[in-house]
Specification:
Layout: H1 2-86
Length: about 90
């Protein structure tokens, strides 16, 4: 009877050790995945900030160029008007 008890005990010990090892492996994998995702989020947030800043710079540049274009068109119109009145 004690031999049977010992065999069952060993089998249960092995079962619980395997279960524990599988659980630990699963947790390590989940923790690594969480860390990878957190790093990815941080990278994307930084990237988003840089892109947003670049967009603002480009919008400012577009506004400046539009103002310059409008000023040049006005100057060209005045010059054309001046030439037609003189010529």
């Amino acid at each position: 009877m004690s031999c049977l008890k010992g065999a069952v005990h060993r089998k249960l010990v092995r079962f619980f050790e395997n279960s524990r090892d599988q659980w630990k492996a699963k947790q390590r994998k989940a923790k690594a995945n969480e860390k990878r995702l957190k790093n990815r989020v941080r990278f994307l947030e930084n990237s988003k900030g840089q892109i947003k800043q670049r967009v603002e710079e480009l919008e400012t540049e577009v506004a400046r160029l539009k103002a310059r274009e409008q000023a040049l068109e006005q100057a060209a119109a005045l010059l054309e008007k001046k030439e037609t009145t003189n010529g």
